[in-house]
Amino acid sequence: MPWRKKILLYLYATFLSDKTREITERYVVGLAIAGFVIHLFLITLRHFGYLPEHELLKNTLVAVYTPFSIILIYEVYLLVYYLPKSISKYIGKQYEIITLIVIRKIFNDISNLEITSEWFQIKGDLQFTYDILASIILFFLISIFYQLLHRRKKVNMIHEENTNRFIETKKWVSVLLVPTLVVLAFYNFYLWINDTISTSTEGIHSLKELNNIFFEDFFTILILTDVLLLLVSFLYTQTFQHVMRNSGFVISTVLIKMSFGQEGIVGSLLTIAAVVIGVSFMYLYLRYERMALSD
């Protein structure tokens, strides 16, 4: 066996094997529970005046932010885990991640609600409305996406996308993504801690910025990864339907990245549009495959 394949097998077994995924899952559950308890404890200390005011310590509802953030990090790992197995499943994980980010924001939106007759004039109430509607629509669209993915398994494809060489390439990409994302996570956490300390005298820290930490850069990396996979796929298949589907997935990821820089209804619409594009390209891809089979 060539040395390159030996290295790949070792790294893949270390970072992305089924056993590693199961161990990681157990640790994630424990960390999520511990993080939730610790966050509640810190909120209690802030309530009695032992800690300064902070956006993440204003009430008990915000404590849900910590376990959701830990679960999101695990979803990032699953995204990398599924990349060598299925491009479509990998894209589905992207949609799950952005939906969980919206859900995480909702818990903060609830803490800012002002129940009045002027609901549609209050910015915080409007944001809650946008986010709750977006999460429902995204959940529905993701269910359609996975239904299409399930149908795909029942269709005998004329052109086999996952050749051995392409699978090997995707494994190398996944293995390289693991340390890249770990470094990115620690770097963003350091920047946030440093920024929080430097602005502690100003009071509340912006939760909007916190929502974007790591994930804005993360989706930039995903765009580069998607483009790389699109280009590499040309070596193994040049069928029109595969090129269109993979191009649609790249466009979808770009729109998700753009949504991080937007507030209010624009950000929600960009996120929904991204998933609609992914679902649409997946549906048309399957339709094209069935037409090819009938010829």
What can you see in these coordinates?
The chain has helices at 3-16, 18-47, 65-82, 87-111, 123-154, 164-198, 207-212, 215-233, 240-259, 264-294. It is mostly helical. It has one domain. Helix 4 (87-111) runs antiparallel to helix 5 (123-154), helix 6 (164-198) runs antiparallel to helix 8 (215-233) and helix 9 runs antiparallel to helix 10 (264-294). The chain is globular. The two termini are 42 Å apart.
The SSE order reads: HHHHHHHHHH
Number of helices: 10
- Give the oligomer, counting copies of the same chain as homo and different chains as hetero: single chain
Structural class category:
mainly alpha
Topology:
Elements: H1 3-16, H2 18-47, H3 65-82, H4 87-111, H5 123-154, H6 164-198, H7 207-212, H8 215-233, H9 240-259, H10 264-294
Helix pairs in contact: 1-2, 1-6, 2-3, 3-4, 4-5, 4-10, 5-10, 6-8, 8-9, 9-10
Give structural attributes:
0% strand
What's a concise summary of this model?
This protein is mainly alpha-helical.
